[in-house]
Amino acid sequence: MSLLSAGSILLLLLFGESLGAPRSFSIDYKNDCFRKDGEEFRFISGGIHYFRIPRVYWKDRLLKMHMAGLNAIQTYIPWSFHEEIPGQFSFSGDRDLGHFLQVAQDIGLLVILRPGPYICAEWDMGGMPAWLLKKKDIKLRTSDPDYIAAVDRWMGKLLSTVKPFLYQNGGPIISVQVENEYGSYYACDHDYIRHLTKLFRSYLGNEVVLFTTDGPGISYIKCGSIQDVYATVDFGPGTNVNSEFYTGWLDHWGSPHSVISSTRVAKSLNEVLATGANVNMYMFIGGTTFGYWNGANIPYAPQPTSYDFNAPLTEAGDLTEKYFAIREVIKMYRKIPEGPIPPTTPKYAYGAVSMKKLQTISDSLKYLAFSGPVKSMYPLTFLDLNQALGFVLYRTTLPANCSTPTPLSSPLNGVHDRAYVSIDGVAVGILERDRVITINVTGNAGSQVDILVENMGRVNYGHQDFKDFKGLVTNLTLGNNTLAGWTMYSLSIDKAINEGVIKEKEATATDPPRPAALSLPTFYGGSFVIPDGIPDLPQDTYIKLPKWRKGQIWINGFNLGRYWPVRGPQVTLFVPANLLTTTAPNNVTILELERAPCSPGPCTVEFTNTPILNATAASHYKRHLELFSREDSLG
Ligand SMILES: *[C@@H]1O[C@H](CO)[C@@H](O)[C@H](O)[C@H]1NC(C)=O
Ligand SMILES: *[C@@H]1O[C@H](CO)[C@@H](O)[C@H](O)[C@H]1NC(C)=O
Ligand SMILES: *[C@@H]1O[C@H](CO)[C@@H](O)[C@H](O)[C@H]1NC(C)=O
Ligand SMILES: *[C@@H]1O[C@H](CO)[C@@H](O)[C@H](O)[C@H]1NC(C)=O
Ligand SMILES: *[C@@H]1O[C@H](CO)[C@@H](O)[C@H](O)[C@H]1NC(C)=O
Ligand SMILES: *[C@@H]1O[C@H](CO)[C@@H](O)[C@H](O)[C@H]1NC(C)=O
């Protein structure tokens, strides 16, 4: 509180001189600098994504950024997060952009806004809503009229929300990016960029500083930049604005955790600042990609739930050696605020929680697919079924007797992205995009084939068109037959978990024996009580899943994200305290897709006080892993 009012006083003092005079922010091309209220101005900014941090922690993270000596922050805006359903906009709770901007301003931070419509950002489809793909041949990020119509509607809503927060209107926003790294996209559609610029100007006015960001190099800048819009580059010295100075780097499942040393970051930051450049550190805090929102790179490599980024503030907002190293560098160029830095929030190890086996996906279809199944000769995609994220169950039958192992195959690599296959209720294998396109199966003609397909995140970056349809996007074959006669269940798993309708499985005599390597995708549930008599609980924690393999976790119905410790590098998931309650038992729900450690073995998850983000247990797995048991033997 006291820090906050100190921030406001500071703000008054800074702007005191110009009280009465209009606030202005502009580019002085002649002197190659920015001018704020007429004075030469240089920003030292840090990246923060409000959509990767729970709202209750926005103030804590922003204060820490302010105390590091930053005078500005930069954020993207993910369109898909605010318009999940066409025409229905959400700007409340963790999506309350206006509140975030207000908190930044109250603390005394200026804001550089990157509203897209495309943002990359390791976010599903680079922030564009998946429903755009309902028109299959849509040309994203071009003048395609259907794309433009959707962009105009969204930007109309967004830019009107943002307008009062512009610097010249009394708010913190000093500049707004048009598109994002457009120069690295094949389309090079100047009409599209001109349209966006006009659109931004029509809502935000002519004074606002618009800019583009591109990779270094003339070819990028040629297609990415536009007349009258300031061009900046992602990295490399030599210009006076560096929009993405990398403090760390992102991770992918199965690859080693990225680390950039504090010394290296501090040294290059010093070099950049010494040239007098404006800089944005990407990221200053990475945060968490909760739920299903992560993106992927190609060849298909999805990003994990943690977006820690090895940034100066950790995923949980903790102060690091890198934070202090950066602060020391900034100190040499700018007076940094006095006063205490908000401390690292305490973490609590709530300990082990036992989990009970609940129903399988197939058992609970009536709760998960309440709108009923859809039938079609050949498989439909997620979007054909009006589903954007999560899971769809595809069901058919074996067309022929397969008494000897017969290849079940996706010859065109059309499993997007991972398929858990069972025959007559027995798990038989996993197909995975770019990795496993064939498994052998046996069974009699007429046996039920259930294929649960997981969307692991849409590709968020590419030079070529990177439209990423999900589900079974091409036919599957069994031997020489094309599988046909599908029944598809669009699954509303989050809704069912929130309604508490997934129950314990009733034991039946006909339960198949548990196979060695794989089980059916199954829910597990457990709960824990926050201990009494310890002050300041609940506190933040991390959930660890010893011997669990791959799946999704919900805490009190909130979709925390994916876990995949057998592939790594992420082993623990951040559980912010705001998800927990002291007034009732806290519910943990897990959908384990491959095999739980339970019976035999302890059926527990563990809440610990230490994150593990750097364990790539399976980093040496074979690219075309065919038999599950081979991967199994690694662990
Ligand atoms: C499959 O094999 C069974 C005997 O195991 C036989 O009765 C049935 O006719 C066969 N079905 C087909 C479609 O070949
Ligand atoms: C399927 O079985 C055949 C015959 O046993 C074998 O040659 C082939 O390698 C197997 N394929 C896979 C993907 O396991
Ligand atoms: C599946 O195969 C059928 C018959 O060859 C074809 O008409 C259909 O377009 C294919 N579907 C997909 C998604 O490839
Ligand atoms: C598929 O067809 C080819 C030739 O038409 C035949 O040689 C082969 O045995 C068939 N495979 C299966 C699994 O039926
Ligand atoms: C946990 O689940 C139970 C049973 O569905 C429910 O009554 C309770 O409210 C849940 N607790 C929380 C904190 O959501
Ligand atoms: C993982 O990170 C921890 C904490 O920074 C460090 O102590 C440990 O050595 C790292 N492990 C690996 C395998 O890099």
From TrEMBL:
- What residue stretches are annotated with the Glycoside hydrolase 35 catalytic domain? 34-332
Its Enzyme Commission number? 3.2.1.23
- GO CC, any one term: membrane
Top EC class of this enzyme:
hydrolase
Fetch the InterPro entries from UniProt.
B-gal_1-like, BetaGal1-like_ABD1, BetaGal_gal-bd, Galactose-bd-like_sf, GH, Gly_Hdrlase_35_cat, Glyco_hydro_35_CS, Glycoside_Hdrlase_35
Chloroplast in keyword set: no
Q: What is its main location?
A: other
Instruction: Keywords in alphabetical order, please.
Output: Disulfide bond, Glycoprotein, Glycosidase, Hydrolase, Lysosome, Signal, Zymogen
Quote any Pfam family the record assigns: Glyco_hydro_35
Localization (cell): Lysosome
* Location of the active site: E181 (proton donor), E244 (nucleophile)
Q: Which parts of the sequence belong to the Beta-galactosidase galactose-binding domain?
A: 521-582
Q: Which GO terms describe its biological process?
A: carbohydrate metabolic process; ganglioside catabolic process; keratan sulfate proteoglycan catabolic process
Residue ranges occupied by any Beta-galactosidase 1-like first all-beta domain in the UniProt entry: 379-491
* Reaction(s) this enzyme catalyzes, per UniProt: Hydrolysis of terminal non-reducing beta-D-galactose residues in beta-D-galactosides
Q: What range does the record give for the signal peptide?
A: 1-20
A molecular function GO annotation: beta-galactosidase activity
Q: What does this protein do?
A: Cleaves beta-linked terminal galactosyl residues from gangliosides, glycoproteins, and glycosaminoglycans.
Q: Which family does it belong to?
A: Belongs to the glycosyl hydrolase 35 family.
This protein's assembly is summarised as: Homodimer. May form higher multimers.
Please give the name of this protein: Beta-galactosidase
Question: What is the protein's species of origin?
Answer: Scophthalmus maximus (Turbot)
